[in-house]
Amino acid sequence: MRVLSLLLVLGSATAAPVTFTKTYNNAVEVLQWTDNQGALSGTYQQVLRTDSRPPTLKTTNATFTGTRTGSTVTLRFSQSFLGFTDIRIWTGTLSGDTLKLTWPLAAGGLNTVVYTRSSANSYNAAVTRLSREVDAARSGFAQQQEQERAERAAVQAQTQAVEAADRAARRALEDAATLTGELQDGTRDLEAAVELLEKDLASLRKDQAELLRDAGQAKTCYDVSVVQGYQLGTLSGYSLSTLTGYGTSNLKNAAQQVQDDLDQAQPTLGRLQVAAQAHRTVPGANPRAQARLSFQPQQVAQAQAALGAQVEIAAATLASAQTRHQAILTEADALVDQARVVARGLTCLPGS
Cis omega before residue 287 (within 30°)? Predict the structure, then answer.
């Protein structure tokens, strides 16, 4: 901050200015005048360190006239503003190097200040010290502000990290619960689809057994025509298409749903693992942050165990269903092929 200096060139050439100063903890004042045979003319300045945060230097300047009679001093301050003149009178005594001045306060009562004879250089040095104090306070305030900003940023970042981790964990827990239920339902649907195929295969076996029985008992051309027409047509048509059509489609749909859920399972388990790690690391990053995770580690562990177990069950059920489906189709084709061979090998005598 620039050092304030007080320069006074008043009065006659032979009248040297006199300087009086007063130093406070947070301010410094100077009175400087020239004395022309008891007629005084001079300036007043106060440099004040404010109590604001950060502090600043506030400078007040004024000019005055006055009189000195012996040791008695009277100073007259006059200030005009918008056509009005404000006049204030300070009175006091000058004794050696000590100037004692008194003036009335606006709120009532009197204020008395004792000034000491000094010099412009001494006053400027006092202003410099006050300026350095303000600069140091402002620098400390700036550092404190920066620390507070950094702390707020750290708290905000921690809060955001906790909230983000909590949202992600909550979604992972919800998705895991949903996926566990869907895998359970899908596994049941898959088992039901295989059971339906088993029933279709049992019906096909029954129809094929009846065809083979009737073929073995066929005596007349009518008997042969029934085996080769109605029974073989039913076996290779409706019975087989029920198994390879609706039954197979039903199983494939159930298998695809289980596979889709299994494809989602590993990413979901990975998100649960991230949630478990977050519970160990995120909350302690900044203890001043108020945000906390709303889930408990055991919730994550239970979700991981439930989903992991259901994944194993669903994967095993899917593999078994697919294997069994292929075996059923193979057996169904073999049953129909055998029935065709037997039926087509039947003959009869004309007219029988």
Answer: no
Per-residue pLDDT of 51-78, as tens digits, reads 998 999 999 999 999 999 999 999 999 8
The answer to whether residue 314 is domain-embedded is yes
C-beta separation of 28 from 127 below 8 A: yes
Q: What is the pTM of this model?
A: 0.63
Report the amino acid identity of residue 146. Answer: E
Angstrom distances, CA of residue 271 to CA of 31, 275, 295, 299 = 77, 6, 14, 13
One domain for residues 98 and 165: no
* CATH code, 78: 2.40.128
CA distances from 168 to 259, 266, 327 (A): 24, 16, 44
Tens digit of each residue's pLDDT (9 = 90 or more) over 297-350? 899 999 999 999 999 999 999 999 999 999 999 999 999 999 999 999 999 877
Question: Who's near 325: CB < 8 A, 6+ residues apart?
Answer: 194, 197, 248, 251
